[in-house]
Write a structure and sequence with these properties.
Helix content: 10-25%
Number of helices: 15
CATH architecture of the largest domain: 3-Layer(aba) Sandwich
Strand content: 25-35%
Shape: globular
CATH superfamily of the largest domain: Peptidase S8/S53 domain
CATH class of the largest domain: Alpha Beta
Structural class: alpha+beta
Largest sheet: 8 strands, mixed
């Protein structure tokens, strides 16, 4: 499942788009100051100003500082160590070397502190690595410091306080200011994209009216528990298969990894997982799930599962946009179980964000990069669309590039809303998946029979529901893997070199794909709240938040088989230059041989049969969006899904 950033979500915008973001500040910055590019809120063009913010109103913000030498210098190092054919290929730096070379200097930090303090703001914290400065104060102090008026606005159902245009900084330090967050008080909470059960919300079970272990082992002629006889669908001459009960971890490992040697299990490699908050039952749930399926539990003696937690958690309530800890527990559990299933001997280290906003996730990335123990980082969250508030993209990219310099690969789910047209009105890609320095993992609908993948197509689903004995269309587009072309982020060179023909010269998404369709989804196990009490149970789930950890776990196998001793590398760095240079180890997803549709059976209340059943038909790879599968790279599944050939190279 894909999370959704709303309100103040992060994304880069072009200079032309930034110019349209809002009116010029009433008190224009003096000539001794410079604008901070893309720092105006992205929603200004449709927001309504409701008055000037009170001078005494409180302000809390963070100023992110540029890497020493600038983004270009950091990008050059990250690309050089990650690109095949480079003289520096796989000559990664240590975290200490990255800090020494790219942390903001003490002189820069002092100059920024002096500027902010001189405007009457209080510097409340300074990152030990010089990557940011936290400030508190008033609107009067912020207006003086950033040379831009701050006003009250109404937008997207919110009443907020925000700058009226781009921020400014003294010319002596402006080039060292990467981004500023917090002056715009719009809600920017991040949540798992599809509701997952938790101990604080109703649990979920799938009825055992489904196919197992293979796709299509049962069809709609099977007797339904309430005696319903399912009619044929659209004059079909053959009964449709029933949805799988949920592919298990061992099934998925064998299907994607094939006949790899038993020693290709991720041993010696660490996969990081980033979500918000921390489930108290995640390890016990993951161990029970694994051992029930005859996989090994985590080895506690060697710390195979570990966690990096912040000093405190902060649950934020912003009305309709809530940041609820327990809502993240299902995502964390799914991610851990998927990675462990694909790489049973790999270490899994969970890095919890302190809260569900940009600052919390960026702090988690900083811990990952400074520790330098993870080879690949799995992220099953992101934003619908990538066209708002651009300066924070640079803060995210700094984290991705710092990681790449050490050898760390960042992986993101591409989203669950297809091309986003049903949400945003026009096709768009999601961020951070659309960032050029991460690997975007899209989604497939997948048939597994006899332990092998027998057919795959892109995940784009149409839904019909049985109503009064008749199949009735209830969703022309139900859900689907994110993909398409960014309208704000340029196409990276590795895609141009690979011959990807972006129609608008934008970053093309996704790069690869894995199982994501919840109708052919993964079986997971989790402690949940049921009417009879809190207990462990299993359910089938999907979304590209399944695809991302499956790919991250498989990548641990590739790192293990990379042939480099552990003392000279953490991992592989940026994955995309490698993938686009040689994608022969991926299975091209074309839809050939895939069933047209399936029948799915659900409980009305999601828990048991007391309220009855719901019967639906889910059509695979519907053509109701702009995304299409075809031979070669496509905007629905990228280069395709992992096979043993890529993992052994």
């Amino acid at each position: 499942m894909r999370a959704r950033m709303v309100g103040g979500a992060v994304i880069a915008v072009t200079a032309a788009v930034a110019a349209l973001a809002g009116p010029v500040a009433a008190n224009a910055a003096p000539n001794t100051e410079k604008a901070i590019p893309h720092s105006a809120p992205g929603w200004l063009s449709h927001g309504t100003q409701t008055g000037t913010a009170a001078a005494s109103a409180a302000v809390q913000a963070r100023v992110y500082l540029a890497p020493r030498g600038g983004m270009a210098a950091l990008s050059a190092v990250a690309n050089a160590v990650s690109t095949p054919g480079s003289s520096s290929y796989h000559r990664f730096l240590t975290p200490a070397q990255v800090h020494a070379q790219f942390d903001a200097s003490a002189a820069t930090v002092d100059a920024v502190r002096a500027w902010l303090a001189g405007a009457g703001l209080t510097v409340s914290a300074v990152d030990t690595a010089g990557q940011y400065v936290d400030i508190t104060g008033t609107v009067a102090g912020a207006t003086k410091a950033f040379g831009t008026a701050i006003a009250n606005y109404s937008h997207d159902g919110q009443s907020v306080q925000a700058p009226t245009g781009d921020l400014h900084a003294p010319a002596s330090v402006a080039d060292q200011v990467l981004a500023v967050s917090g002056l715009d008080t719009s809600a920017s909470t991040i949540a798992p994209g599809t509701q997952k059960p938790s101990p604080a919300s109703p649990g979920f079970r799938n009825p055992q009216v489904c196919s197992a272990p293979d796709f299509g082992a049962l069809d709609q002629t099977a007797q339904m528990p309430d005696g319903t006889v399912l009619p044929t669908f659209q004059n079909s001459t053959a009964p449709l298969p029933l949805s799988p009960c949920g592919y298990t971890g061992p099934q998925l490992r064998n299907a994607y990894e094939g006949n790899l040697a038993s020693t290709s299990n991720g041993a010696g490699v660490t996969v990081a997982i980033v979500d918000a908050f921390a489930s108290p039952t995640v390890e016990s749930d993951a161990n029970r799930y694994a051992t029930t399926l005859h996989d090994p539990a985590f080895d506690d003696r060697n710390g195979q599962f570990s966690q990096s937690l912040p000093n405190a958690f902060n649950q934020v309530n912003t009305g309709k946009r809530q940041c609820d800890a327990s809502g993240w527990y299902g995502e964390e559990t799914l991610d851990v179980e998927a990675v462990h299933a694909m790489a049973p001997a790999a270490n899994v280290r969970y890095y919890a964000a302190s809260t569900c906003n940009d600052r919390g996730f960026l702090d988690a990335f900083a811990r990952i990069n400074s520790e330098g123990v993870a080879s690949v980082v799995s992220n099953s969250w992101g934003g619908t669309g990538d066209a708002v508030d651009g300066d924070l993209q640079l803060a995210y990219e700094t984290a991705f590039l710092r990681g790449a310099a050490v050898g760390i690969s960042y992986v993101f789910s591409s989203g669950d809303a297809g091309d986003d047209a049903t949400v945003l009105g026009t096709p768009q890609t999601d961020y951070p998946a659309s960032d050029p320095y991460v690997t975007a993992v899209g989604g497939t609908s997948t048939e597994i029979k006899g332990g092998a993948i027998t057919a795959e197509t892109g995940w784009q689903t149409e839904k019909w529901t049985l109503e009064k004995g008749v199949w009735t269309q209830t969703a022309k587009f139900q859900s689907g893997g994110g993909g398409g072309y960014s309208t704000h982020i340029p196409e990276p060179q590795y895609q141009i070199d690979a011959g990807i023909k972006s129609p608008n010269n934008g970053r093309a998404v996704p790069d690869v794909s894995m199982l994501a369709d919840p109708n052919t989804g993964m079986l997971v196990g989790q402690t949940q709240a049921f009417p009879e009490g809190v207990s462990y149970d299993t359910y089938r789930i999907g979304g590209t938040s399944v695809a991302a950890p499956l790919f991250a776990g498989a990548t641990a196998i590739k790192v293990q088989n990379s042939g480099m001793p552990n003392n000279v590398r953490v991992g592989l760095g940026l994955l995309n230059p490698l993938i686009y240079a040689d994608h022969s180890g991926f299975a091209d997803v074309t839809g050939a041989g895939m069933a047209a549709a399936e029948v799915r059976v659900d409980y009305v209340d999601g828990t048991d049969a007391k309220s009855g059943y719901v019967y639906s038909v889910r059509i695979f790879d519907t053509n109701n969006q702009s995304l299409r599968v075809h031979t070669g790279w496509d905007d629905e599944t990228g280069w395709g899904s992992v096979r043993a050939g890529w993992l052994m190279k």
